[in-house]
């Protein structure tokens, strides 16, 4: 769960997120009410987090001896999103420990400066076979440090 208030999450800007991906919504993302189904947001969160882990933290899913298990998640919705909109997803790390990391994802419509939603989850890293908690390896930790949120913009890693 985020420690930020709803007001703080709603006021996030794209520059608050050091890593970004673009997502083109699909017809099948919409629900019967004509907007993107809530469950799709969690697919987006999973996609940007795992893309970052693969590209910048040395994760090789089929070969990894250490995996992250989601232990909590959240999403705050501020504006509807629907097909055929394009979205910009932003990723940052709000908390980084020895064995866990809490991610925050901002979901922005391409032409808008305020997020349509902000959410995320916490990974606890475990041995992929025994499922026992394990300290993050150095490659993951160093990659995730680059996304660590700071109240001081000059302190970005």
From TrEMBL:
Belongs to the 4-hydroxybenzoyl-CoA thioesterase family. PANTHER family: 4-HYDROXYBENZOYL-COA THIOESTERASE FAMILY MEMBER (PTHR31793), NOVEL THIOESTERASE SUPERFAMILY DOMAIN AND SAPOSIN A-TYPE DOMAIN CONTAINING PROTEIN (0610012H03RIK) (PTHR31793:SF27). This is Thioesterase domain-containing protein. Transmembrane segments: none annotated. InterPro entries: 4-hydroxybenzoyl-CoA_TE, HotDog_dom_sf. Pfam families: 4HBT_2. Keywords: Hydrolase. It comes from the Eukaryota. The keyword DNA-binding does not apply.
């Amino acid at each position: 769960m985020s420690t930020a208030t709803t007001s703080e999450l709603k006021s996030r800007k794209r520059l608050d997120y050091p890593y970004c991906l673009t997502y083109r919504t699909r017809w099948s993302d919409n629900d019967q009410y004509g907007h993107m189904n809530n469950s799709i947001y969690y697919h987006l969160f999973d996609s940007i987090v795992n893309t970052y882990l693969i590209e910048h933290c040395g994760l090789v899913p089929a070969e990894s001896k250490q995996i992250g298990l989601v232990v909590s998640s959240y999403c705050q919705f501020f504006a509807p999103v629907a097909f055929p909109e394009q979205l910009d997803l932003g990723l940052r790390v709000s908390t980084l420990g020895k064995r866990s990391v809490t991610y925050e994802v901002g979901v922005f419509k391409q032409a808008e400066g305020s997020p349509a939603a902000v959410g995320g989850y916490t990974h606890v890293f475990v041995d992929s076979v025994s499922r026992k908690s394990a300290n993050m390896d150095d490659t993951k930790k160093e990659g995730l440090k680059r996304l660590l949120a700071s109240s001081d913009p000059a302190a970005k890693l």
